[in-house]
Design brief:
The complex is a heterodimer of chains A (203) and B (166).
Chain A: H1 30-86, H2 89-96, H3 101-114, H4 119-131, H5 136-149, H6 151-162, H7 164-174, H8 177-192
Helix pairs in contact in A: 1-4, 3-5, 3-8, 4-5, 5-8, 6-7
Chain B: H1 2-24, H2 27-60, H3 64-71, H4 76-89, H5 94-106, H6 111-124, H7 126-136, H8 139-149, H9 151-163
The chains are: A mainly alpha (203), B mainly alpha (166).
């Protein structure tokens, strides 16, 4: 993720203007520590219940899973990087930024709904949008839209398992939710962090 | 596994598409984003590894009966609330989540409760948050996104109560 300033010869701007959340990462943040602790406790519980074999079973299964998703993670990261490079930052922050209003939330929702792939594309792309000037509200709308009304999971899993009727009806019910979630997110964000220009990166 | 193949084709097709656009902006732009993407990948791999391997252990200590139990008996808003908890706590991927929902529907679970379960699972399933959202997104985004999403399984259940069954 490296530091933003190194972000290539991007179209001028940058200097002052919008907040740029995300993108800057410390290698180990609090969330990583908490997850690691949770994992250690769970693994210990599995070990007490199922012995060493149980622990190794899960490990080998998860390692093969890990190997299987790595190429997709790479694809997601490349997708995110290319998108953040080719999207005109100024336009993005105008149409998806803090002042983009309802339109920004709708664009975020539409974008999340048509995004191909799974979590390995949704989150890298969401993170890229944040980096090029989308605000939390529009990005929340995009992520929630991807998970609730995106066609990928619905076609691959929900329709075969839960049936077409239930799935379509559930999606219909979910239609307003991404915009509402994005609006709520934006509302809360500007009140929690009234000066977004301040150092905006913690992890 | 033709669905997986289709996903991969779509995925790499999209990468190729945006890559081509970047390339037409000039090789320096292309090279810069290629480098950026690879660095992202290298930085993210340890987190994904922790997420994949770790969430397997966390899932292993959550017995599935607990989930179905939460989704079972209560009707009304209490039932919706416990369905939301069940959705967030459901381990595993979409097959498990949707199968539990189907079983609940077939065994007489209320439709609003099952809708709340599926929506809550989509929004909060802990394995997806640990494995994907936390590694890729700023911490502040993850918790704000989760916090503002809390009302929406309930909203979905309310809409389901108003408009009726599928």
């Amino acid at each position: 993720m490296s530091e933003l300033p190194s972000k290539a010869p991007a179209p001028a701007e940058d200097a002052e203007s919008e907040p740029r959340p995300g993108r800057v990462r410390k290698p180990i943040g609090w969330s990583t520590i908490i997850i690691a602790a949770l994992v250690a406790v769970s693994a210990a519980l599995v070990w007490r219940r199922d012995g060493t074999d149980g622990v190794l079973d899960i490990l080998t299964h998860d390692l093969s899973l890990f190997g299987g998703i790595l190429p997709r993670v790479l694809a997601g990261c490349l997708l995110g990087a290319f998108i953040s490079e080719i999207l005109p930052h100024e336009k993005v922050s105008r149409s998806l930024g803090p002042k983009s209003g309802l339109m920004g939330l709708l664009i975020g929702t539409a974008f999340g709904a048509i995004l191909p792939g799974g979590p390995f594309t949704a989150y890298p792309v969401a993170s890229a949008l944040l980096a090029v000037g989308a605000d939390f509200g529009a990005t929340i709308a995009m992520v929630v839209s991807w998970t609730l009304i995106g066609y990928g999971r619905a076609v691959a899993w929900e329709i075969p398992i839960m049936g077409t009727d239930f799935t379509l009806w559930r999606i219909l019910i979910s239609l307003p939710l991404p915009v509402l979630a994005g609006a709520l997110g934006r509302f809360v964000y500007v009140r929690l962090y009234p000066q977004p220009l301040a150092k905006d990166d913690e992890n | 596994m033709s669905a997986a193949l289709l996903i991969d084709i779509l995925l790499w097709g999209s990468v190729l598409g945006v890559g081509l656009i970047a390339f037409r902006r000039g090789p320096p732009v292309f090279k810069a984003s290629l480098r950026e993407g690879s660095m992202d990948f290298i930085n993210i791999v340890p987190r994904i590894a922790l997420g994949v391997i770790g969430s397997g252990y966390i899932a292993a200590i959550i017995p599935q009966e607990v989930i179905t139990g939460w989704l079972g008996p209560d009707s009304g808003w209490l039932g919706v609330a416990s369905a939301v908890v069940a959705g967030a706590a459901t381990p595993g991927g979409p097959v498990i989540g949707f199968s539990i929902g189907t079983v609940a529907l077939k065994s007489g679970g209320g439709v609003p409760q099952v809708v709340a379960y599926v929506v809550a699972w989509a929004l909060f399933a802990f394995q997806r948050v640990i494995l994907w959202e936390i590694p890729f997104m700023p911490a502040r985004f993850v918790w704000l996104r989760c916090a503002v999403s809390v009302p929406f399984p309930f909203v979905a259940a309310a809409i389901a109560m108003v408009i009726g069954k599928p």
